[in-house]
Amino acid sequence: MKTDLDCVLRLRDRVPQGHKLALVDIPADAPVLRYGIPIGYARQDIAAGSWVHERLLRMPEARGLEGLPIANAKRASLPPLEGYSFEGYRNADGSVGTRNILAITQTVQCVAGVTDFAVQRIKSELLPRFPNVNDVVALEHAYGCGVAIDAPDAAVPIRTLRNISLNPNFGGEVMVVSLGCEKLQPERLLPPGSFAIVDERNKAGSGASAEATLDVVCLQDDAHVGFMSMVESIMRQAELHLKRLNARQRETVPASELVVGVQCGGSDAFSGFTANPAVGFCTDLLVRAGASVMFSEVTEVRDGIDQLTSRATTPEVAEAMIREMAWYDAYLQRGGADRSANTTPGNKSGGLSNIVEKAMGSIVKSGSAPISSVLAPGEKLKAKGLCFAATPASDFICGTLQLAAGMNLHVFTTGRGTPYGLAAVPVIKVATRSDLARRWHDLMDVNAGTIADGSASIEDVGWELFRLMLDVASGRKKTWAEQWKLHNALVLFNPAPVT
Ligand code: CA
């Protein structure tokens, strides 16, 4: 990635770290190229050596979704990667957890305070008796009532919440706290048959074809007299699940059982040539090892749609990508916005002029493997290989949707710096710059700034990340976000109206 400049440039402006300078004279209206594509058109003549910032660029229109190249890319040669494994918790449905956590699902925000009270007591009074259980997590969210629950797009938040409660790290131990009068009734959230994990366990345990019954604590139930009755009811049910979770043991499983969600947040101009390419290299390693990797963030890949459709394994996969992009274009348009609403003040201070430049740096997290599946927001991943999981780029919403897809390990790159973390899965954070890695030495897990410093290659950092993933997945290492218990909220994506 070294560039030898055969000319001597005299800087005409003070150029902040991470920002661009013109290598040649760029006449007005000429394309300004980065990553080999026009990230904008010059609004005026730009002399060689000038600082090129957003105010000098006119952003290109988004490419239309017609006439895209479909599944025609020459396949990268990716030989299988064998012999890598980690220590995970094998579930009855075949999925594998990297942590052993009791999750308490909630149908509605109304029960959040009571559930949180109960969870604090579970942690202090019950959890010490179940040392194999890592944590107890209340799946708090803002949905469940006061929403147009029969609107077509309500399917998104509902299936998201359902699939999160089935995340591999929760071991199939689904328990629900409900208020009673809410629109999202427990049977609608988790209809019979949707939690097959429990069905399977019951069958295995009893030898009979026992129907799983949903374990629900309903606060409005007549049986409850007073607050403590509700709290104790939640604790009593939790104890049954904790007993079963405590019996789980880690076992050696192949690296192909990793389900990795990658995303970036607080990006800067280094994201696209240090951290994200290293993650992309690691993505290829994971795909070669037979694992599942999801990349997401629709507005951050929208400008690279032709690269994605061409990398699809089949025309159906390419069509599914186009369908998700079209849905998102319409969603943004309905709100009077477009993809340019994505960039933040921090992105721009960090040298990213617009969403086109940001997208070109973001998309490289997907590496070079063929894209073999596509998920709509909130759907559960069923395939191995590289998946485009369509989600908003919002860090918490993307993370929440990747959790629903079944992610058991999360990789997050950042240039500006974010202390992001999730309660349900370990989050490995990768810094794009050594300066950030030094200042946030107890928040960043990997420093990809070494690539810019010249002390490591993209391949070196990619391998470092891959090995760290196996250690973190096995519980041998904790991420900094786990160390400090930094947990961002679950934020459901609700494109449907509220009432
Ligand atoms: Ca993000």
What does this structure look like?
There is one protein chain. Helix 12 links the parallel strand 18 (427-431) and strand 19 (446-447). The protein has 499 residues and is of the alpha/beta class. The protein folds into three domains: 3-58, Roll (Archaeosine Trna-guanine Transglycosylase, Chain: A, domain 4), CATH 2.30.130; 101-170 and 172-247; 252-484. The longest helix has 20 residues, at 227-246. The chain has helices at 112-126, 155-165, 186-189, 196-206, 227-246, 275-288, 305-311, 315-334, 345-349, 355-362, 395-405, 434-439, 449-453, 458-473, 480-483, and strands at 20-21, 31-34, 37-42, 51-52, 57-58, 85-90, 96-97, 101-106, 135-139, 175-178, 215-218, 251-254, 259-264, 292-295, 371-375, 385-389, 409-414, 427-431, 446-447. Helices cover 31% and strands 16% of the residues. Helix 7 packs antiparallel against helix 8. It binds calcium ion (CA). Calcium ion binds at residues 263-265, 297, 393, 395, 398.
Labels describing this entry:
single chain; alpha/beta; Archaeosine Trna-guanine Transglycosylase, Chain: A, domain 4; seven-stranded parallel beta sheet; four-stranded parallel beta sheet; binds calcium ion
